[in-house]
C-alpha cells in the first residue's frame, strides 16, 4: 500500500465534536435541535442506515424522532406525518429514508418536506439552489466527500474530476459541487462507452455505482485521489466498495476505505445540516 488513507471515522468524529459544541449553545438558549427520520418498509440496509443515523444524533446532542411504517402503508399516511412534522416547531430536520416502496412517487414525497427542514437536500428547490451555486442544504454524501477532499488539501481548481454514477443522491450533486470548486467534471454511467478511458484521466475519481470492486488499479491515474462511495456486500458477508482497494491503493495518492470512509462522513454531514436548520430556524 502506497496511498494515503482518508479516515472517515476520524474526520467524522472531528465534525461531530464541533457540532456537539454548537448543539450545546442552542440548548443553552432553550432550543434542542431535532431530526425526524421516516422509514417505510423492511429493507435491511435502510434499517441499518436509519439506526446509525439515530445513534449519531444521540452522540451529538441532537434529539431524534423515529417513525416506521409497513411496506404496504397507504402513501397518504406518510404524507400526513410529513405534514405534521413540517408544522412542528420543535422539529428542525426531516429525512425520509430511500428507497421507498413502489406505491410511492419518490419526488412527490421529497417535495412535501418543508424546504427549510429538508436536511437531505433532495427537494427540487434545494437541488435548484445548489445548481445555481447558492446551496441551502448540500446532500449529505457529496457534502462529506467535499470535506474529505478538503481534509487532504486536494487541489481542485482546474483538476479533472471523474464521477462514476449519475444518481440524484450522489453523482449529480457531486458534479455540481466539484464544478463550483473549479474542476472539469465528467459524469460516467452505465452507457459510457469506454469507462477506463475516462477514469484514467481523473485527478479526482469518485466511484458511486454500487458494483463491487469494479474500478481496478489499471483504471486509475497514478497520483489520483480516489473516493469510494459504494458499499456492497460480498457473498462471504464482507463489505467492499466500488473500488478494488488492493490494486487501487498501489497506484493512487490517497483513497477512502470501505467501510470507514464515506459512510461515517455522510452521517456527520446529516447532523451538520440538522444543526444548520435548527440554527436558522432559531434566528
Ligand atoms: N438512501 C441512501 N442514501 C440516502 C441518503 O443520503 N438519504 C436518504 N434519505 N436515503 C438514502
| Hetero ligands | guanine
Using the 3D structure, state the CATH architecture of the largest domain: 3-Layer(aba) Sandwich
Number of strands: 11
CATH third-level topology of the largest domain: Rossmann fold
**Cα-to-Cα separation, first versus last residue:** 49 Å
Q: What portion of residues is helical?
A: 40-55%
- Biggest sheet: strands, sense, closure? 6 strands, parallel
Question: Structural class of the helix and strand makeup?
Answer: alpha/beta
- Reading off the top of the CATH hierarchy, the class of the largest domain is best stated as Alpha Beta
Strand content: 15-25%
Structure description:
Catalyzes the oxidation of 5,10-methylenetetrahydrofolate to 5,10-methenyltetrahydrofolate and then the hydrolysis of 5,10-methenyltetrahydrofolate to 10-formyltetrahydrofolate. Keywords: Amino-acid biosynthesis, Histidine biosynthesis, Hydrolase, Methionine biosynthesis, Multifunctional enzyme, NADP, One-carbon metabolism, Oxidoreductase, Purine biosynthesis. Homodimer. It comes from Rugosibacter aromaticivorans. This protein is α/β, with parallel strands linked by helices and 283 residues long. It has helices spanning 8-28, 44-60, 75-87, 106-110, 124-131, 140-151, 171-180, 195-199, 245-248, 262-281, and strands at residues 4-5, 34-40, 63-69, 93-96, 160-164, 184-188, 204-207, 225-228, 232-233, 239-240, 254-255. The protein is built from ten helices and eleven strands. The protein has a six-stranded parallel β-sheet with strand order 1-11-8-7-5-6. Strands 3-2-4 form a three-stranded parallel β-sheet, with helices on both faces. A two-stranded antiparallel ribbon has the order 9-10. The protein is globular, with a radius of gyration of 19 Å. The mean pLDDT is 97.
